[in-house]
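Hypothesis: this fold can be encoded by more than one sequence.
Test: take the C-alpha cells below, design a sequence, compare later.
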C-alpha cells in the first residue's frame, strides 16, 4: 500500500519521478543494501564491485573509524579495538556481554560501552557506523539523498533489540519507514506473493541469529501465522564449535587471550566455508607459544560437531507449526535464508524435517535485502507491488501485573501487528487515588517468571470505594513491533502513557527459555495462579470486613456476634499464606457467612439513612 504523498502548491513532483528508497540487511557477519531500479531489484556495490560489507568496525587512536573490509583485516591483530558480530550485542545488558571478550567502560550507565582506544562505544554507535557506510554507498549509486529505508531485523528480536536498531539508524541519519522481519522480506524476494495462495515456512539461519516463520499468502496479504527462533544462535556458534575442537586437537589452553580466540574463530570460519564445497580441509594453525599445529577436518567430522546446534533450530520449527495449528504436510514450500544455510548438512536436516526439498534459488546473503528493497519501494510511493500487504506478529505475550504478583496477558504472542488492545481495570482499596502500571513480557503466570519492560503511574484518580473506578489500559504495538502503553481513568479523562524504550534486551537464550518454561511449567503455573488469586481474595475479604467492623461494628453488632466474626477472620489470617487453595477458599467462605447478617444490617442502615426526611411522592414517576 503506497503512502499518500502531499506536496506544497505548485511543487507536485512529476509523474515519472521516482523517490530514492533502499532496503538494508544489517547482518551479524555481513551487511547489504539493495534497491529497485528500472523495475529490477539489485544489490548495490562498492567501488570494487563488492556487494557485501563485512559488519566489522575498527576504532583508531586518532578518532578515525574503519568499516568493512579494511576493519576486517585488523580483526585479529587489533582485536580489542575491532568490533565484530555487533548485532549480537544490540539491546543487551552488561551481564549478557561479559563473555564477548571485549573490555567495558566501568561506569553507572545502564547501556554497556565497549572500551576502545578512542573511548567507549555502544553497540548502537557501532551499528550506526555500518549503516552510514551503506547509506554512503546508496547515495553514490542513486545520485542523491535517500527518501527512506527499510531495515530488516530477525523475527525474534525483542522490543529492546528493535529499538536499538532504530536508534542506530537515527544516529546514522536515516529515515526508517519500517523495520521488517527478515523471513517476511525473504518471502517477498522469492516472489511468493506472485504465486497461488499457500502456506510457506521461512527458515532463516544467519551469522548470529536464527528464526523460522510460518507465512500464509492470500489475496495479496502476507500473514505471519507464527514465528519462533533464537536470537543468539547462528553461524558464529558453528564457528565456535570448530574453534573449540581445534583448541582441543592442538592443545591450546581454554583461557587463551582475546586475540588468540579471534584468530581461531577466523580459522574456523574459513574451514566451515571451505567444507561447503569440498569433503576435507587441511588446517594449519599457529599456537600461541610453540609453532604450528597441522591437521585436517572432514565434512563428516564437521557435521558431527554442529549436529546438536542444527537440532536446536528444529525445535522452534516444531513449535511454530504447533502455534500455527499446522502439520508438516500443510507447508507448501520451505525457503532457506541466511549464509549458514549454504551448509549442505543444514539443507539436508531441514529437508528431512519438512519432508520436502527446500528452496535455495536466490543467494541467501542477498535475499533479505532484496525483499526489504521491494517493501521500501512500496512505502516510499513508487507504486510497484502496491497491492501487497505484510502482516507480522509479536514473538512474546505482553501483559500487566495485577494484585498478588500475577500477569494478565493483554496482547498474546503471535498476534498480528500493528495491533491495539484495551482492557479495563479497577482500584483495590477504598479511596485509592493512584495506580502503578507494570508492563511485562513473557508466557508465565507469575510476575517473577516474566521480564519487566516498564513501570509508570496514573495519578489523580477520584477517591471512590474499591472496584468503583474504571481505568482503561491500552497496549499499542506498531508495525515495527515497538510498544506504547496508556492508562486513562473513565470519569475524569486523566491519562498517563509510556513508550517502551528499554536500554537492554533479553539474555542470550531467554526468549527460548521463556517459551519452553511456559510449556514445561504449565500445570504448575495454573496451580500457582489459583493460589495467588485465592490469597488476594482472602486479603481483600479481611480488609473489607475489618474496615466495616471499625466503622459500624460497635453500633450494629452485639459482643457475641462480633466475636464470632473475628474468630473466623483470625482463622483465615492463619491460613492465608498457606499453599492449599481449597482450605483458604473454605476459610474465606466461613468469614463471609459469619458476616452475612452484618452486611445485611449495614445495607439496611444505609438505605434508611438515605431515605430519612424524604416523602413517598418524591419517588413516584
Amino acid at each position: 500500500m503506497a503512502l499518500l504523498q502531499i506536496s506544497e502548491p505548485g511543487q507536485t513532483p512529476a509523474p515519472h519521478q521516482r523517490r530514492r528508497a533502499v532496503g538494508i540487511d544489517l547482518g551479524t557477519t555481513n551487511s547489504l543494501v539493495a534497491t529497485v531500479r528500472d523495475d529490477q531489484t539489485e544489490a548495490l556495490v562498492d567501488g570494487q564491485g563488492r556487494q557485501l560489507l563485512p559488519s566489522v568496525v575498527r576504532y583508531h587512536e586518532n578518532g578515525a573509524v574503519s568499516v568493512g573490509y579494511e576493519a576486517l583485516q585488523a580483526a585479529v591483530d587489533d582485536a580489542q579495538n575491532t568490533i565484530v558480530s555487533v548485532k549480537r550485542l544490540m539491546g543487551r545488558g552488561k551481564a549478557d556481554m561479559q563473555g564477548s571478550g571485549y573490555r567495558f567502560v566501568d561506569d553507572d550507565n545502564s547501556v554497556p560501552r565497549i572500551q576502545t582506544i578512542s573511548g567507549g562505544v555502544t553497540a548502537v554507535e557501532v551499528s550506526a557506523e555500518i549503516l552510514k557506510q551503506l547509506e554512503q554507498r546508496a547515495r553514490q549509486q542513486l545520485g542523491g539523498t535517500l527518501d527512506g529505508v527499510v531495515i530488516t531485523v530477525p523475527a525474534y528480536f525483542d522490543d529492546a533489540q528493535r529499538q536499538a536498531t532504530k536508534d542506530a539508524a537515527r544516529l546514522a541519519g536515516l529515515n526508517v519507514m519500517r523495520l521488517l522481519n527478515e523471513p517476511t522480506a525473504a518471502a517477498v524476494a522469492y516472489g511468493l506473493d506472485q504465486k497461488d495462495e499457500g502456506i510457506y515456512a521461512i527458515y532463516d539461519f544467519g551469522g548470529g541469529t536464527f528464526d523460522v516463520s510460518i507465512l500464509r499468502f492470500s489475496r495479496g496479504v502476507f500473514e505471519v501465522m507464527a514465528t519462533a527462533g533464537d536470537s543468539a544462535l547462528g553461524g558464529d556458534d558453528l564457528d565456535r564449535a570448530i574453534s573449540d575442537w581445534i583448541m582441543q586437537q592442538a592443545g591450546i589452553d581454554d583461557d587463551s587471550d582475546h586475540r588468540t580466540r579471534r584468530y581461531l574463530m577466523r580459522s574456523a570460519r574459513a574451514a566451515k566455508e571451505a567444507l561447503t564445497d569440498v569433503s576435507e580441509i587441511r588446517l594449519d594453525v599457529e599456537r600461541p607459544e610453540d609453532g604450528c599445529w597441522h591437521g585436517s577436518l572432514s565434512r563428516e567430522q564437521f557435521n558431527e560437531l554442529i549436529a546438536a546446534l542444527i537440532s536446536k533450530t528444529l525445535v522452534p520449527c516444531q513449535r511454530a507449526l504447533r502455534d500455527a495449528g499446522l502439520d508438516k504436510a500443510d507447508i507448501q514450500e520451505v525457503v532457506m535464508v541466511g549464509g549458514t544455510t549454504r551448509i549442505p548438512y543444514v539443507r539436508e536436516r531441514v529437508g528431512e524435517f519438512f519432508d520436502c526439498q527446500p528452496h535455495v534459488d536466490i543467494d541467501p546473503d542477498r535475499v533479505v535485502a532484496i525483499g526489504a528493497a521491494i517493501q521500501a519501494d512500496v512505502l516510499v510511493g513508487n507504486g510497484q507491488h502496491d497491492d501487497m500487504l505484510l502482516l507480522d506478529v509479536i514473538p512474546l505475550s505482553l501483559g500487566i501485573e495485577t494484585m498478588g504478583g500475577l500477569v494478565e496477558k493483554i496482547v498474546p504472542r503471535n498476534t498480528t501487528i500493528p495491533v491495539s488492545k484495551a482492557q479495563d481495570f479497577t482500584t483495590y482499596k477504598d479511596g485509592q487515588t493512584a495506580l502503578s502500571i507494570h508492563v511485562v513480557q513473557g508466557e508465565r503466570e507469575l510476575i517473577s517468571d516474566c521480564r519487566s519492560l516498564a513501570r509508570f503511574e496514573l495519578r489523580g484518580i477520584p477517591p471512590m470505594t474499591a472496584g468503583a473506578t474504571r481505568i482503561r489500559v491500552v497496549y499499542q504495538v506498531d508495525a515495527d513491533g515497538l510498544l506504547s502503553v496508556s492508562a486513562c481513568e473513565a470519569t475524569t479523562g486523566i491519562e498517563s502513557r509510556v513508550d517502551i524504550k528499554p536500554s537492554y534486551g533479553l539474555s542470550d537464550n531467554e526468549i527460548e527459555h521463556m517459551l519452553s518454561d511456559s510449556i514445561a511449567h504449565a500445570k504448575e503455573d495454573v496451580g500457582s495462579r489459583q493460589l495467588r488469586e485465592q490469597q488476594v481474595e482472602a486479603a481483600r475479604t479481611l480488609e473489607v470486613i475489618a474496615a466495616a467492623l471499625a466503622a459500624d461494628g460497635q453500633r450494629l453488632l452485639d459482643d457475641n456476634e462480633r466475636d464470632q466474626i473475628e474468630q473466623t477472620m483470625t482463622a483465615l489470617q492463619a491460613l492465608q499464606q498457606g499453599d492449599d487453595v481449597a482450605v483458604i477458599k473454605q476459610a474465606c467462605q466461613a468469614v463471609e457467612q459469619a458476616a452475612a447478617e452484618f452486611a445485611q444490617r449495614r445495607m439496611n442502615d444505609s438505605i434508611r439513612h438515605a431515605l430519612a426526611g424524604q416523602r413517598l411522592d418524591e419517588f413516584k414517576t
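The chain has 14 helices and 27 strands. The two ends are 58 Å apart (CA to CA).
Hypothesis status: open.
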